[in-house]
Amino acid sequence: MPSSSAPSPGSAKSVSGGVQSLERAFDLLERMADAGGEVGLSELAGSTGLPLPTIHRLMRTLVACGYVRQQANRRYALGPRLIRLGESASRLLGTWARPHLARLVEETGETANMALLDGDEVVYVAQVPSKHSMRMFTEVGRRVLPHSTGVGKALLADAPDDEVRALLSRTGMPAATEKTITTPDGFLAALGEVRRLGYAVDDNEQEMGVRCLAVSVPDSPTPAAISISGPAGRVTEQAMERIVPVLQQVADDLTQALTGANG
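RESULT FIELD:
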């Protein structure tokens, strides 16, 4: 009589009740992303513990579907078909965030934004404008460099120093204003301040007369941050004491919403 024990490694079903080959394929894509987008089969075998023939079969399927491509050097890279999925997911993430950003506007009076780290750049995926006649506006889809923005600081605050330095060396640190941080050491010091305070500040660094406050969205499926931006005359030290706790609470609530959406 057949045994009712847990599925063997080679079976089609996983212990969680899902399809094991699908779980493995997505795990390989995640590991490729973590490795910078390009890996060899031996690296995947070492990190997953799966047999090489299994990995090769899964990768061959992913290549055929366009989600992975094989390079001339025989290594595997994330494929172009993932771009469409990523763009759609980013838009959906912005849709989920909008009610939370609207609450942020109601409670702070300032324009609220959500941004993601996409490669070496920050991309804005959602915004709800302030009701003030004088307000800040950042176009959804706009890309900026991280070193001159509050969201950039929030997104990179927990990254290792060497990774931050490598990113800055690739992007450069052009000055958007006279207050922009333009040295790696200065930026790393600013990230240390973000970790100490629990929030990031863009004090006239992206645009003169504008102050932004930002926090990361904890445990987001992709690095994300939310911010408020407004005239420096309104976003004062006193206003910051009131706004930062609201930002942090909305970020926590957004995490719950995203986790619920994923679950």
